[in-house]
Amino acid sequence: MSRILTAAVLLTSLWPSFFQRPADSPESAILALVRSMYANDVDTYNRVTIPDPRRARLTTGGRVNTAALQRLEQDPGSLQMKSRRPFLYRGRETTADAAGAYPPGTTALYSVAHSGNQMVAPLVRQADGWKVDVRWWLAMIDLQTGPEKPGTPQFAARALTAALAAMDRTAAVKFATPGASLDLLFRGGQREPSGVFDALAMEMPLVELQPGEFFPIDDRVVEGSSAPDQKLLLGLFGVVEIPFVVRRVSGDWRVEPQSFYRYFNR
């Protein structure tokens, strides 16, 4: 605990003006997040991330990285941040108002790189500023214990993704909803010879979206569901989000068909 307090004092002395302003843009929220990670500053980390019952798993055992902290202060431009898709509000592309603000509920996706480290940061605009959504990071931790068990929506989504990556039509049929169009599922598909798609399918963190959360799928917008037999999952396939509508059919979870290769090929 003393390490965290010492780092917090150091951080406040280095950047007093930064902490006096709210995280009013995705970039400022990401900058605060990276600084808090290097400083092992849990209070700031929690302030710029969305609360989650398991969030402490991401900060427990952290250590101060003084060298990276100094590099970031000396050269803030070395923190590379890139928006990976349009900003979305209720599943539709949106823009900022005249004051440069986005409505609460707007989502964004950024890739972040610094000092040889890379991460993907999903963000949500809330009433008090932009926050990083850590659910996908927690899902990545869960994957370290092994893939999901058969018979779950997540297993069906991952298995279908792996089948598509392998161009395996027989396997794809097993995890798609009955009567699914293989032409739609494999539209634009081609075997990726390096095995990158196969690896991403297995490493993809999946999060179930809740009612009030939206994501576009082809020409429609789908909302997260509380129904017991339908789920809307959102996976991070590298730096690309892939949505999955998963339904329970005769006791088995199956994925609705869509043009998945439009995500693979981005």
- The average pLDDT score comes to 90
Helix tally? 11
Number of strands: 12
Spatial arrangement of strands, main beta sheet = 1-4-5-6
The geometry reads as globular
CATH fold-level label of the largest domain = Nuclear Transport Factor 2, Chain: A
Q: Name the helix and strand elements from N-terminus to C-terminus, one letter apiece.
A: HHHHHEEEEEEHHHHHEEEEEEH
Total individual domains: 2
What is the highest CATH level, the class of the largest domain?
Answer: Alpha Beta
Whole-angstrom Rg = 20 Å
Put the structure in a nutshell.
It is built from eleven helices and twelve strands. With 266 residues, it is α+β, with helices and mostly antiparallel strands. The strands form four sheets. It has a four-stranded antiparallel beta sheet with strand order 1-4-5-6, covered by helices on one side. The protein has a four-stranded antiparallel beta sheet with strand order 7-10-11-12. Strands 2-3 form a two-stranded antiparallel ribbon.
Q: Can you put this structure into words, describing what you see?
A:
The chain is an alpha+beta fold and 266 residues long. The chain folds into 2 domains: 2-133, Nuclear Transport Factor 2, Chain: A (Roll); 147-264, no CATH class. It is 34% helix and 24% strand. It contains 11 helices and 12 strands. The chain has helices at 2-14, 16-19, 26-39, 42-47, 66-74, 135-143, 153-165, 169-175, 182-185, 196-203, 261-264; strands spanning 80-83, 88-89, 92-93, 107-114, 117-126, 129-132, 206-208, 214-217, 220-223, 230-237, 240-249, 252-255. The strands form 4 sheets. It has a 4-stranded antiparallel sheet with strand order 1-4-5-6, with helices on one face. Strands 7-10-11-12 form a 4-stranded antiparallel sheet. Strand 8 (214-217) and strand 9 (220-223) form a beta hairpin. Helix 7 (153-165) packs antiparallel against helix 10 (196-203). Residues 1-23 have low confidence and may be disordered.
